[in-house]
Structures are given as C-alpha cells and as structure tokens.
What does this fold into?
Amino acid sequence: MDNLLLLYNLVGIVDFPTRLTNTSATAIDNFFIDVSVFQDYVVLPFLNGLTDHDAQIIVLRSFDPGQSPGTKFVRKFDQHKISDFMFNLSNESWDIIFNTDDVNCMYNSFVNIYLKIFQAPFPLTKVTSRSKINQWITVGIQISCK
It folds into this structure.
C-alpha cells in the first residue's frame, strides 16, 4: 500500500489521535492528499462525543498555476437561471439511464446528463477582484486576518 501511495504522491496528513479511550490514543483515521496539488491545507479534530472515533475536518486550498492572485471562477445564480435549470431537468427523458443493468454505467450516464444540464445555465465565470489597500490596516491586523 505504501508504494501505491508514493506512486500517486499521497501523504497522510492527520498527525493527532483520532481514537481516544481511557487507556490509549491512536491515529487510525487519516486523510491522504496529493501535496503537490494541495499545498495549503488545515486538518482539525472534531470531537463529536458519539463514539470513541473523533471526526476530522479538512480545509483545502488548491493551487492553480494558471490562476493569478485576485481571480477566481464562480457560478452566478438567479431566479431565471434556476427556473431554466429546473425546466431542463424535468424535461430530460433519462431513458439512457434505465436501459442498462450496469450500475456504474447508470451512474456515469446520470452524472453526465445532470452536469450537462447544470452547466448550461450556470457556467463558470472568471471574476477578478481588485485589492483594496486600506492604509489604516496594520501588518499585525493583516496577520491576524490570515
């Protein structure tokens, strides 16, 4: 398994105990990520109190070398676009999904149809934000905000 993880550049990133008992603390639950894609991440314990296994929360920020700072891709939603999406979704025949016995084929067909219908009214749009420089914000406040 370790060779497989190295092959895909996967690294275990949970470095705190995830299973706690009265006599032991072990890190048996983990996230494996490709650190070349996700260089900026935070993993936090989430004490749920339901079992002896605590949950983990991961926050990922992906690095896109083609994306300049201050730009991001968003989908714009409004009532007209939502109505268009719902109309197209309800008028889809879905026959291709039910004409096979292979569950994987059914799932892939469903996802492809759904994404085609979803991305038509809600395309990704590149948005550039202008950085606003406030002279009164000190370096200490900027560090605290980050």
